[in-house]
UniProtKB/TrEMBL annotation:
Superkingdom field: Bacteria
Annotated keywords: ATP-binding, Nucleotide-binding, Transport
GO biological process: carbohydrate transport
Domain ABC transporter, chain residue ranges per copy: 4-225
Species the sequence originates in: Brevibacillus fulvus
Name under which the protein is recorded: Sn-glycerol 3-phosphate transport system ATP-binding protein
Location of this fragment in the whole protein: 1 to 225 of 351
Gene Ontology cellular component list: ATP-binding cassette (ABC) transporter complex, substrate-binding subunit-containing
One function term, GO molecular function aspect: ATP binding
Record flagged with keyword Transferase: no
Length: 225
C-alpha cells in the first residue's frame, strides 16, 4: 500500500509537451482511474510512475520518497499491459513465477506464492498450460497474477481489458474491483472508456491534452448536469 504524489510533473518528447505540469495525489489504497481521449497523456503518466519513462520536470513521490531517479525494479510497483506480454514458451506457473525471479525466494516459497495467487485469480487448474492454450480472459488473469505475485505497493494497469470482448470485459471489471478490495493495494488504472472509469474507480481523474480537467468521485461526476 502506498500513496503516490505527482508535483508539477512534465513530460516532453522532443519539442512536444505531452504532460503539462500534473499535480495529483493518489491516496493509499485508492482505485484511481485516469480517463480521457486517446493521446491525452494517460499512458505516459502511468509509464512515468512505473519508471518506464523519464520525467522531464517535477517530482514523483511514493510514500513521501522522491523516486524520479529510481529504476523500475526499485520502486515496488507492478504494471499490467494491454497486450498481456506473456512468455509464449512458458506455462502459466512459470509465467507467474517470472515476477519472483531475482528476488531470492526459495523454490518452495515461489511455489506457495504462485499457487496462492493462482487461487485468487481462478487459474489453479491451468498452471501447466501454455498461453496459446488459454482464452483471452485467462491470459489477462495470468498477466494480473504475474504482477500481483510480487505484492507491489502500487498496481498500475494500462487498458488491461481492451482486448477482451464486451461480456468478458464486464466480468473482469467486477473481478478487478473485488480484487482491489481484497488486496487493499493502491490501483492506478488507465482507460479511455468513461463507463469503465465510472464503474471501477473511487477517484476519477479526467485528462485532456496533457492536463487534468477534473478530479472527482463517481458520485460527484454522476451528480453533474
Ligand atoms: P494516451 O495514453 O492518453 O492515449 P499517450 O500518453 O500514449 O496518450 O500519448 C500522449 C502523447 O504523447 C501522444 O501525442 C503521443 O503521440 C505522444 N507520445 C507517446 N509516446 C511517445 C514517444 N515515445 N515519443 C514521442 N511521442 C510520444
Ligand atoms: P497507448 O495509447 O495505449 O499508449 P499507443 O499505440 O499510443 O498506445 O502507444 C504504443 C507505444 O508507442 C508506446 O510505447 C508509446 O510510448 C509509443 N508511441 C506512441 N506515440 C508515439 C509517437 N508519436 N512517437 C513515438 N512513439 C510513440
Amino acid at each position: 500500500m502506498a500513496e503516490v504524489r505527482l508535483q508539477q510533473v512534465v513530460k516532453k518528447y522532443n519539442n512536444q509537451t505531452v504532460v503539462k505540469g500534473l499535480d495529483l495525489v493518489i491516496p493509499d489504497g485508492s482505485f484511481t482511474v485516469l480517463v480521457g481521449p486517446s493521446g491525452c497523456g494517460k499512458s505516459t503518466t502511468l509509464r512515468m510512475i512505473a519508471g518506464l519513462e523519464e520525467i522531464t520536470a517535477g517530482d514523483l513521490l511514493i510514500d513521501g520518497q522522491r523516486v524520479n531517479d529510481l529504476a523500475p525494479g526499485k520502486r515496488d510497483v507492478a504494471m499490467v499491459f494491454q497486450n498481456y506480454a506473456l512468455y509464449p514458451t512458458m506455462n502459466v506457473f512459470d509465467n507467474i513465477a517470472f515476477g519472483l525471479l531475482n528476488r531470492g525466494f526459495s523454490k518452495k516459497d515461489c511455489k506457495r506464492m504462485v499457487e496462492e495467487i493462482a487461487e485468487i485469480v481462478g487459474l489453479s487448474s491451468y498452471l501447466q498450460r501454455k498461453p496459446a492454450e488459454l482464452s483471452g480472459g485467462q491470459r489477462q488473469r495470468v498477466a494480473l497474477a504475474r504482477a500481483m505475485v510480487k505484492k507491489p505497493r502500487v498496481f498500475l494497469m494500462d487498458e488491461p481489458l481492451s482486448n477482451l470482448d464486451a461480456k468478458l470485459r464486464n466480468q473482469m471489471r467486477v473481478e478487478l474491483t473485488s480484487l482491489h478490495k481484497q488486496l487493499g493495494t493502491t490501483f492506478i488504472y488507465v482507460t479511455h472508456d468513461q463507463v469503465e472509469a465510472m464503474t471501477m474507480g473511487d477517484q476519477i481523474v479526467v485528462m485532456n491534452e496533457g492536463e487534468i480537467m477534473q478530479k472527482a468521485s463517481p458520485f460527484e461526476l454522476y451528480q453533474q448536469p
